[in-house]
């Protein structure tokens, strides 16, 4: 349902952040985007909903070309794409409920949203989403009163309020501890399967990605270098993406799958700042 | 770390020699400038008056104490006028400064030309004291509290506008990005991600300016723009210093109250 | 998926009520002021004030309408400012204002340091504290022009009274902020230096000053700006500077000259702002 053709981005400084990306994501597929820092993962995600303007190439959402649309057409396209951010991007002074409801801003007029008079169906949906992510008693709390994991769950609820067809997820677990990271990844992937959402998850924890996603795409220096099954991530492939390293922990197929009581996986990519 | 070598023994210095010389040169320049200015002032001063100052001060204080409490009743309405001048003037100034700040902030302005115009208005308003505005307005709209209110408003636009646009430029950009990505209209993005972030600053700045404006409003009467300054002007012209003292006491009391209110509100809106 | 569990029993009835309402699709954000009594009190007093103020403000609209023409003259004069007819007076006035500003700021900041030290609760003995706080209170309550009137009476007409006025105002402004800064300083460096056994002055120089100095420089530049603007006004009461010329030109409806003076003031304030930004970066 998302099709990227020949997508490139060259910044004013001359950096070629993305080079001729061709990618197709069918509905309901959860795809992980891996690669070293500076490979263009964030740029790619932001090009899809035009937070960053691509230099060349095209973006098709459900058959519609959204590469150059502007104004209300752009907003309509964005409504169908939900985005989850690395640092949660909540409005800290607003309550959790207001943050979740802000996912519906595109569907509600200015004054109704300003006076917080959202339709009952929206409020019910918000409440149900908060229940689904386990925060149904916290909707009156201020955004900054939550823990990192809780904030990210609010971010997830906000993205889903849009009833999107595609989820863009930018490093959802970078600021979270290992256990919370797994909880969040599991939650995102379960929700995608429940609602048949396509998702592109920008993530640097390869082990985490392998455990939950359907497909892995590797980016290096702005170019696509791998596209396939998570099980196919051999040490050679990882070297071609990240460079020379001891990948022995990743390559052990005899490990118990999804063992949550196991100690936290080593961060292979080493991209934690 | 700057190190000097004396007889082959390293000695720690606080600063690099060049920087040290620059600082000394700066002080010398400042000192010379100061002496120059002092000479200019002194040339224009009749120093005989200076020697008299002690006795003058003494006699002035003698005439002011005890204050003439009899006029207190007649000062109540002018005091009320002064408070109104400050409050209405501040409100008016804020209403105009608010959109201006959005036009002047780098991250919310729709066009650089508009930004330049908004900044120009803010700078002009900031540079001219309320008293000067009052002098001008009295000749245009006539004496009275209306001139006073406009004077306060015009001065407040610059103060509030500047602090507000600086606050707008300092917000976190990620919530703004997040809300834009949901497809919300620009105004909604501003209302939901920019406004909540600047709200405490806005309240603090407004109340702070109101507090300052109370003080400024007390003087506008000197040029005819209403308030307690009118009575003060009259008493000074009549050399009725005991009355002036009463006015001072009232001003002091009012400022104490307004400062208390201002501190309370700024504390509550963090 | 279980949340970091809040037991239903631990929620208040209000919270449970809100949860049930939200489930049914009804939700409003919690009000800013939680207590109902306070909300009513505030809203009522605001309404009362607006009504009273509306009744007491008496605007002579016919006079305003008459004045509009003069208003247009004034705005038009900005497009044709007259720098030449009174250039002599303007130049002397501006030069006087600038010198007054600089002198007064230097003297004011210099004197503000001892007063500020004396007004800091954590380093000053009690009687000194009260005395310094008193000076600060008087300086800050009364607008510069009121103080100017008093000093003109004492010291006679001329820029000297202006310098003393602005210096006095500067002392109040700087000393208060300085005292607050000192009271806010981290205790550890203060105690550490005290523990080395140095004298009181050395303690100030090594422990208090470094924490307070950067802000002092920034504030002095800000005060320089304020003092210049005030110096353009106190001339009205005879304390020197360009205020007298400005006042005369306004009273004579000589708006072209007024516009010239105002434009010069705006330009000088702009330049001083650039300069102070530059100096601040250089000293940081």
Tell me the layout of helices and strands.
The complex is a heterotrimer of chains A (273), B (270) and C (284).
Chain A lengths: L1 E9 L5 E10 L4 E5 L6 H8 L7 E6 L2 E2 L5 H9 L1 E4 L11 H6 L8 H5 L5 H13 L15 H14 L4 E5 L7 H18 L2 E5 L3 H7 L2 E6 L2 E6 L6 H8 L31
Parallel strand pairs in A: 3-8, 3-9, 6-7, 7-8
Antiparallel strand pairs in A: 1-2, 1-4, 4-5, 9-10
Helix pairs in contact in A: 5-6, 6-7
Chain B lengths: L2 E4 L2 E4 L4 H27 L3 H18 L7 H33 L7 H16 L2 H12 L3 H25 L3 H8 L5 H32 L10 H10 L3 H28 L2
Antiparallel strand pairs in B: 1-2
Helix pairs in contact in B: 3-4, 3-6, 3-8, 3-9, 4-6, 5-6, 6-8, 7-8, 8-10, 9-10
Chain C lengths: L12 H12 L11 H21 L4 H17 L9 H32 L7 H16 L2 H12 L3 H26 L2 H9 L4 H32 L11 H9 L3 H29 L1
Strand order of the largest sheet of chain B: 1-2
Q: Could you tell me the radius of gyration of chain C in angstroms?
A: 28 Å
What is the strand tally of chain B?
2
Biggest sheet character of chain C: none
Shape descriptor of chain B reads flat
How much of the polypeptide of chain C forms β-strand, as a percent range?
under 5%
Low-confidence stretches of chain B: none
Helix/strand class of chain C = mainly alpha
H/E topology pattern of chain C: HHHHHHHHHHH
Rounded Rg of chain B? 26 Å
First-residue to last-residue Cα separation of chain B: 41 Å
Shape of chain C: flat
What does this protein structure show overall?
The complex is a heterotrimer of chains A (273), B (270) and C (284). Helices cover 32% and strands 21% of the residues of chain A. Chain A is globular and about 55 Å long. Chain A is built from 9 helices and 10 strands. Chain A is an alpha/beta fold. In chain A, α5 packs across α6 (148-161). In chain A, β4 and β5 form a beta hairpin. The model of chain B has no long low-confidence stretch (mean pLDDT 89). Chain B has 10 helices and 2 strands. Chain B is flat, with a radius of gyration of 26 Å. In chain B, strands 1-2 form a two-stranded antiparallel ribbon. Chain B has helices spanning 17-43, 47-64, 72-104, 112-127, 130-141, 145-169, 173-180, 186-217, 228-237, 241-268; strands spanning 3-6, 9-12. With 270 residues, chain B is mainly α. Chain C is built from 11 helices and no strands. Residues 1-6 of chain C have low confidence and may be disordered. Chains in contact: A-B, A-C, B-C. Chains B and C meet through α1, α2, α3, α4 and α5 of B and α2, α3, α4, α6 and α7 of C.
